[in-house]
Amino acid sequence: MSQQNKLEGISKPRRVKHSFTQSIKGTPKQVFPLLCPVREADWIPGWTTDWVISNSGVAEKDCIFQTPPRPGAGGAASIWVITRHDADAFEVEMFKVTPEFTVGKLQISLSAQGQAGTSAIIAYEFTSLGPLGDTYLEGFTAQWYEEFMQVWEEQMNHYLESGELTPTPDLQSG
Fold it and tell me: Please, are residues 138 and 8 in contact by the beta-carbon 8 Å criterion?
């Protein structure tokens, strides 16, 4: 096989990454367990999973779960894999694969903010897997991401203060 043939199909990635820091009204110990495919239904209106594979029944390293197809993704469900889940460092990383759409990486790091608050650094990075992904990346702007993160922050803070879902609609995370 020639060198030219080995390189067929290789292209430069079309990738977009955004990061946002939230101020959460709870300690990292209160917040971290909520970053879970099962527990997110407690505080994100409309959040659902099709299934979860987990030894503990909640988020953990190597937990795999599926979310239903989202608008614009060509009808494909998304498979998520938690690759880092460190409850001592309050860090979680997961990858989300939606065939023919995107591969996403989500990284969350929590740190104490005063006596009863948390600073949550949340970074999403998406790589397009084709024309549908390209269209998604065009709308995955810094402004859209900031608005999405503000809604997420509001939803979590409402839950931590009231124990209930907020009536704010979900913006869908991609």
Answer: no
Burial 16-52 (b: 16+ CB within 10 A, else e): bebebebebbbbbeebbebbbbbbbeebbeebebeeb
44: Cβ–Cβ under 8 A, 6 or more apart, which residues? Answer: 152, 155, 165, 170
End-to-end Cα separation, the chain, in angstroms: 39
Contacts of 143 (CB under 8 A, 6+ apart): none
Q: Which residues of the chain have pLDDT under 70?
A: 1-7, 168-174
22-53 per-position pLDDT tens digit: 999 999 999 999 999 999 999 999 999 999 99
Q: What is the pLDDT of residue 1?
A: 41
pLDDT of residue 2: 43
pTM, two decimal places? 0.90
**Other Cβ atoms within 10 Å of 140 Cβ, number:** 21
Q: Are 85 and 92 in contact (CB under 8 A)?
A: yes
CA atoms of 165 and 163, how far apart (whole Å): 7
153 CB neighbour count, 10 Å cutoff: 18
